[in-house]
Design brief:
Among the domains are: 53-228, no CATH class; 424-571, Histidine kinase-like ATPase, C-terminal domain (Heat Shock Protein 90). Helix content is 61%, strand content 14%. It has helices at 10-30, 32-91, 110-121, 150-161, 189-195, 221-228, 232-384, 391-422, 432-446, 466-483, 541-551, and strands spanning 95-97, 106-108, 129-133, 166-173, 176-186, 211-220, 428-431, 453-456, 461-464, 491-499, 502-509, 556-561, 565-571. A 5-stranded mixed beta sheet has the order 8-10-11-13-12. α1 crosses α7 (232-384), α2 packs across α7 and α7 crosses α8 (391-422). The longest helix is centred in the middle third of the chain and has 153 residues, at 232-384. The chain is flat, with a radius of gyration of 45 Å.
Length: 572
């Protein structure tokens, strides 16, 4: 017979808790100095990093104020020089020019003079530079290739939108943290008058207030720290004083902790007496707990009866589940039977498609011969009986030939549409940008006399059937090429964007455009929104595009405004 282990007495539990408390206090007493040392070291590290950040912010603020002052003074100097010097010298025949050192009777341009003065001011101060940037530089000044780094490009874009503000940031230049500051150089009335007539000016349509250039100033922050006297001794001397104060205060804290530990030991003894009293009370509570366990045992017996009842209910539920499984099997059998019917229907549809393809080929072949006969005999009549026909007869025969040729084109377009929409899809990843450039080159070779601005985004990859997508691009780009024919400055663009979290491509032009009211007709076969005499075509291209995009599981949608161009977006 197994013997039940006796539960620990309340007095033993109290002793265990007392020993744990005393052990914890002893550990804290032994490790007090290391703990305080670690905490103080962490405080010093936080102060060090905080002071370093304050130094950097102070240097950046000084550099920013200096750069702003320099840019404002440079602007005032250029305006004064343009008004008080350049205009007066123009009156006596002395002109401002970029190569003024080698050109007799010339003075420097205001911008070049400002740039040279800035260079002289920063002479002998390594890392400090001033530059003048512009998208429209004079032929031998500034940045003639218009090449700007990331900061300069963003500064130019920002200052063109907000010319009254400044643009700056702190970055590493040649291994030194430096402030890069940029301010807009706006065209005043005197500047506009001179630049628009100056023979060396790259642009002659300047307007007052327009941003003509950007003044960039670079200040290394470490040189400003040296100028302001912010060295290690000044910045971190206080930390040394704090260390000395900590050493003195630490001794006082140790003495205080020893006194406190004695008081804590007295309190622990008193707490031990209280715990002994609590142990006696716990023994009474244990007796009461045994009575409660008897009550719980009776409740357990009642719970077993309820479990048996619940087991009976679960058995009934299992029977119901078995019936549901049988019904599911019958449903699966029905699904298999329906799948077989679907397979049979698919075979029938495939056979119908083949018959339709054979019918289309037969019809097109049977129609081609009469059409060739009509076109050939009409041409023969025009050539052999030209002297016997009047102008009306010739016109009628030419219209007959044009109609027969257009009908032949319609037959070819119908066959091509059927072929492309039934062709098997072979998916692979390819460079769509290269395909677009090849199509545009072919269009340019066909009409070399046309000057069309073509903008193609680089490295646009797509995963699709290359041949079918080429047909899509040929139709879209061919339409853009055709409908920009009457625009004085035609422009075609191919790029990409985002649509519902996936890549979307677009073909955009500035040609004839269309009314969005009739946009739903664009993708129907033989649907046209422009007269055939104005823009020739059979009206099947966009229908072909629509079906190929659908076969790839994508979408296509148009946007257009009459006489302002059109955009066709599509996804794959």
């Amino acid at each position: 017979m197994l013997s039940k282990e006796a539960p620990p007495k309340a007095s033993d539990i109290g002793k265990i808790y007392v020993e744990k408390v005393l052990g914890g206090l002893e550990f804290l007493h032994q490790q007090t100095i290391p703990i305080l040392t670690i905490l103080f070291g962490l405080c010093l590290l936080v102060m060090y990093f905080h002071i370093s950040q304050l130094k950097l912010q102070m240097a950046a603020t000084i550099a920013l104020r200096s750069a702003d002052t320099h840019s404002r003074e440079s602007k005032d100097m250029r305006e004064w020089y343009a008004i008080e010097v350049v205009q007066r010298l123009h009156a006596i025949g002395i002109n401002d020019s970029e190569p003024y050192r080698v050109k007799e009777g010339a003075i420097p341009l205001p911008a070049l003079l400002s740039l040279n003065l800035g260079g002289q001011l920063f002479l002998g101060r390594p890392g400090e530079r001033v530059r003048l940037l512009s998208e429209y530089p004079f032929s031998s000044a500034g940045n003639p290739e218009k090449v700007m780094d990331s900061f300069q490009g963003k500064a130019w874009e920002f200052l063109n939108q907000h010319p009254e503000k400044s643009f700056y940031r702190v970055e590493a230049i040649e291994g030194r943290q430096s402030l890069r500051f940029a301010a807009a150089a706006r065209m005043q009335q005197e500047c506009v008058t001179c630049h628009n007539v100056h023979e060396e000016s790259p642009k002659h349509d300047w307007q007052v207030g327009q941003v003509g250039g950007v003044v960039e100033i670079i200040y290394p922050l470490d040189s400003l720290e040296e100028m302001t006297g912010m060295d290690w001794i000044d910045s971190y001397g206080m930390m040394g004083v704090l260390v000395l104060l900590w050493l003195g205060g630490f001794g006082l804290v140790v003495l205080k902790l020893r006194r406190v530990s004695g008081e804590l030991e007295n309190r622990v003894r008193g707490r031990t007496a209280d715990l002994n009293e609590s142990n006696r009370r716990l023994e009474l509570e244990i007796f009461e707990r045994q009575l409660a366990e008897d009550t719980i045992r009776q409740a357990r017996d009642n719970l077993e009866k309820r479990v048996q009842e619940r087991t009976g209910k679960l058995a009934a539920s299992n029977a119901e589940l078995i019936r549901e499984v049988a019904e599911r099997k019958r449903a699966e059998e029905d699904i298999r039977r329906l799948n077989a019917q679907v397979v049979q229907r698919s075979a029938q549809l495939e056979a119908s498609n083949k018959e339709l393809e054979a019918f289309s080929y037969s019809v097109s072949h049977d129609l081609r011969a009469p059409l060739r006969g009509i076109d050939g005999f009409s041409q023969a009549v025009l050539e052999d009986y030209d002297d016997k026909l009047d102008d009306s007869g010739r016109s009628y025969l030419q219209r007959v030939r044009a109609a027969s040729q257009r009908m032949s084109q319609l037959i070819d377009a119908m066959l091509n549409l059927a072929r492309l929409t039934r062709a098997e899809i072979h998916t692979q990843t390819f460079d769509m940008s290269a395909v677009v450039r090849g199509i545009l080159d072919d269009l340019q070779k066909i009409e070399p006399e046309r000057q069309v601005e073509c903008v193609v985004a680089d490295n646009l990859l797509a995963t699709a059937d290359p041949q079918l997508i080429r047909a899509v691009l040929e139709n879209l780009l061919g339409n853009a090429w055709k409908f920009t024919r009457q625009h004085p400055n035609p422009r075609i663009e191919f790029g990409h964007s985002q649509y519902n979290g996936q890549a979307a491509y677009f073909v955009k032009d500035n040609g004839a455009g269309f009314d969005m009211t009739y946009a739903h007709k664009l993708f129907g076969a033989f649907q046209r929104l422009h007269a055939y005499t104005e823009y020739p075509g059979v009206g099947v291209g966009l229908a072909t595009v629509h079906r190929i995009i659908q076969r790839h599981g994508g979408q296509i949608w148009p946007e257009g405004v009459v006489d302002q161009g059109a955009v066709f977006h599509f996804t794959l």
